[in-house]
Each structure stands twice: as C-alpha cells, then as structure tokens.
Amino acid sequence: MQADFEHCSTLVRDADRDRYLATLFAPAAQRDALNALYAFNIEIARVREKAREPMPGEIRLQWWREALTDERDGEAAAHPVAAALRETLARYNIARDRLAALIDVHTFDLYDEPMRTLDDLENYAGKTQGALFAMAAEILGRPGAAEAALTRHAGIAYSIAGILRALPVHAARRQLYLPLELLERHGVNREDIFAAHGEIPLRAALAELRAHARRHLAAARAKLDVAPPEILPALLPAATVGPALRRMERRGYEPFEVYQMPGWRRQWWLWRAARDPSRIFMI
Hints:
This protein is mostly helical. The chain folds into two domains: 94 residues, no CATH class; 172 residues, Farnesyl Diphosphate Synthase (Orthogonal Bundle). The chain contains 17 helices and no strands. α9 packs across α10 and α10 packs antiparallel against α14. The chain is globular, with a radius of gyration of 18 Å.
C-alpha cells in the first residue's frame, strides 16, 4: 500500500505543483491521504487530454465510478491511485458519493459545449475545486459547516485563475470555459477566441472575470478567522491566485501565450502564506 501512496505523491509532484508543495506544510501523518485525493483529481481532470474523444472519456469516468463502488474491486486494487484513494476514504470516513459527484461534474470537460453563465461556472468550480478544498480540509481537521463557504469561495477563485491561465490550451481545442453571458456582454465572438484574437473586448471580459475571482478571494479571506488552524495546509494552494491575477494585469500580458509560473515563486508564495495565513487570500 505504501508504494501506492508514493505513486500518488510522485503524480501530484509532477502534475499539480501547488498542491504538492502545500502538502509539505501538512502533518506527515496526513500527507499520504492528501496526495491520494489530489492524485485522483488529476486522473479525473485530465481524462479529456488522454481520451481525446467523448466516448472513451465517458468510459474512463465510468470506470472510476465503478471503482469507488467496489464494482471493479480487482482492477481498483491493482491501480495505485484507486487503491490509495479507497484506503483514504475508509480511513477518514469520506463519503464516496462526494467523489462520484466530482466525477459527474467533470463530464463537462469531455464535450465542446460552452459554459453558458457565470452561475454555471461557479457551480462547476464549487463542485470541483471547491469540493477538493473541502475534502482536503476534512482530512486535516474535520471542519464544521461554517467552513463550507470558505472552501467553496476558495475553490471558485482558484478555478477561475486556472481557467484564465489555461485559455490558450482550451482555445486550441475549441473548449470554452469563459461564460457566454460574459462574452456577449462585452461583444466577444467565441470564434475570435478559438482563433486566439486577444482584442480589447476580450481583455475587458477577462478583466471582469478576474474581478469576480477577487470577490471570492475577499469572501474567503473574510471567513478565514473561523477556520481551524489545522486545515490551513488544505487552503494554501489559493495563495497562488492573487499573484497570478496580478501578473495578468501587467503591461504586455498576452492572454493566448502559455506561461509557466516559475517553481521558486510558487514555493515562495506558499511558504509566506504558511507562515502568515492572512496571505492565503491576498487580493
């Protein structure tokens, strides 16, 4: 079983640097469980990249649903992420239907249907990244109902920042997470996005979406005082949101250029936030 957890740790280190670094600030006893949860999220979130077509993607997501309900017991036991995840769910008494709900929401990723409204985007973000923040917090400290809004706001802000960073990738495969209502309000044609035309109307729409992310950062920060200190490592990845948004507002920013945040900067932001939690949701 330890080899399964080590596999998860390696996967998270390579594919989700924010959360890998954040786990280093968590107690050693909970790191395996956190990495199992995060590795599962990686597996689900990248199904489209690996499957490329909706039907194989649907089959892969269904495999994970069945692995969670023990319908594929032998196969799941042989899959390092599935085995580590099932051990984690049992150890921390996390309901499997919460993972199944996360899988269901990621079905959206398999198709080219656009995100239609800002409410739809918030719902998607809350049920994916928000749910991930919440379950990680449960592994660390069993937060109460008062922290549910905190993790949801954190998840929405983190998800929006991720969508803005991934705009070049999504546009290249004609996938649209930017809400249509937002684009229409600014007179942006979706075909211009797919053609990577970063004209002034699009920049205005992106600025509005950044402002929306900041409102969620502010709402999360307002609730930080009620959070038990032990769950803070689960929230640390959100410390990268503010700096990412600020970079997008610099002169010369090009929304369709792929940008990889230097690893040392991620480490620096997370280290400072771990020492001073008020920095986690800096706007």
